[in-house]
Each structure stands twice: as C-alpha cells, then as structure tokens.
Amino acid sequence: MSVRSFPAMGCIVEVGGATAREAEAIERIFQARDRQFSRFREDSELTRVNRKRMVGRLLVRPVGLELDLNGVVKGQTVDEAVGLLSGDGFVTAGGDYAGRGEFDVALPGGDSVRVTRGGLATSGTTKRRWLRAGVWQHHLIDPRSGRPAESPWAEVTVNAGTCLEADVAAKAAFLLGFDGPAWLDARGLAGRFLPEDGPPVLNDVWERSVADPVAA
C-alpha cells in the first residue's frame, strides 16, 4: 500500500491507500485547517486572534489567555480525510488515527494494536513539554487550576467511534488520573494508560477488545 506524507498542524500527516486525487484532496484539507487553526504558524488565523483582545462580535478573552484548538481540529480533520477514501486506507496525524479496514497501529512504549473500526488517539506529555523555572510544564491544562495537570500517566490512548471522540476522551482520561480507566469503562471506551515508569495499564474494555495484541 502506498503511503503519502506531508507536514501540517505541527506534525507529519500520513495517508495510506488513497488514490492520487484523494491524497491531494486530503492534503488540501489539512493545509486549509493549518492556515486557520495552527498555533505553530505566525500567519494562521488563530495566531492573529491570540495576538489581540477581540471585541464586538468576534471574541473577548482574559489578558494572557491564548487559545490552542490544534488537538480537537486535528482529530476532526483526520475523520474528515478518511471519509474521502474510496477503499481501504488510513490517515494518521501526530498520534491521531482513523482508517477504513484493519490496520496495525503503533502505540507509545513500543507495542502496537490492530484497529478494526473507529478511531484511535493518544494524548500525553512526553512530546510537548518544557522547563520553566526548573519545573516541567506541558500543554494539558487542568481546568480546575488553570495549570498543567498533574497525572500519573505519561500517555493515554483511547479507541472510540471516531478519532475526534477518541481524542476528547483521551484528554479527559489523562486529566482524571487514576480515575481515568474506570471513567472510560463507564462509557464503553477502550483505554491504554502508560505511566512514567512501568508497564501499561489497560482498562476492562481494552482488555476485552484486544484479544491478540500485535507485537511491535
């Protein structure tokens, strides 16, 4: 299967199984979303909004608050892109996956899993983190404190009906800490939790869904 890759939204997008016309259409969608929502581009619409305190009909936000919609938009765009495929194939973008057909997908920590339906998304702090005043910071903000969340997990991976649903659930499960696995179980979602040290923790739905994990 041919795979086409290109940069967008601060990551590498990979498209497998697309015709030349489908691949071009998918790349156009990602580039359009990048121009609108990327916080990594100085000329994006979101960057321009974050430079000003909008008034009137547009937007008003507290001083110092900047919007970052990249995660949600990326997952939604992956879903939209897969809908353009005429046959079996997949689209991945920075930890987000959706496909038509069965494909093996790499997981944080070196494992992989065969995804037969829906989308897969991983949210965590191993890649987007930085030191400030000697303290590690990251992009997953706890809404209760407004500060980078404290969580026992380094990465959380969720399988759901769509990539967007999986992405939202993965972030929520990460923020919930040790309550994350049970929260996903209550919603019938499969989750894999990778701690800073030690083996992955699988919730009950993941255990039941993955009969035969694929070795990396």
Summarize the structure.
The chain has 216 residues and is of the alpha+beta class. The chain has helices at 20-37, 45-51, 70-82, 163-175, 180-186, 204-209, and strands spanning 3-8, 11-16, 89-93, 96-100, 103-106, 112-115, 119-124, 129-132, 135-138, 141-142, 147-148, 153-160, 190-195, 201-202. Strand 3 and strand 4 form a beta hairpin.
Explain the overall architecture:
It is a single chain. With 216 residues, the chain is α+β, with helices and mostly antiparallel strands. It folds into 2 domains: 1-101, no CATH class; 118-210, Roll (T-fold). It has 6 helices and 14 strands. The protein has helices at residues 20-37, 45-51, 70-82, 163-175, 180-186, 204-209, and strands spanning 3-8, 11-16, 89-93, 96-100, 103-106, 112-115, 119-124, 129-132, 135-138, 141-142, 147-148, 153-160, 190-195, 201-202. The strands form 4 sheets. An 8-stranded antiparallel β-sheet has the order 1-2-3-4-7-12-13-14. Strand 10 (141-142) and strand 11 (147-148) form a beta hairpin. Helix 3 (70-82) packs antiparallel against helix 4 and helix 4 (163-175) crosses helix 5 (180-186). The longest helix is centred in the N-terminal third of the chain and has 18 residues, at 20-37. The protein starts with a strand and ends in a 7-residue tail after the last helix. The model has no long low-confidence stretch (mean pLDDT 84).
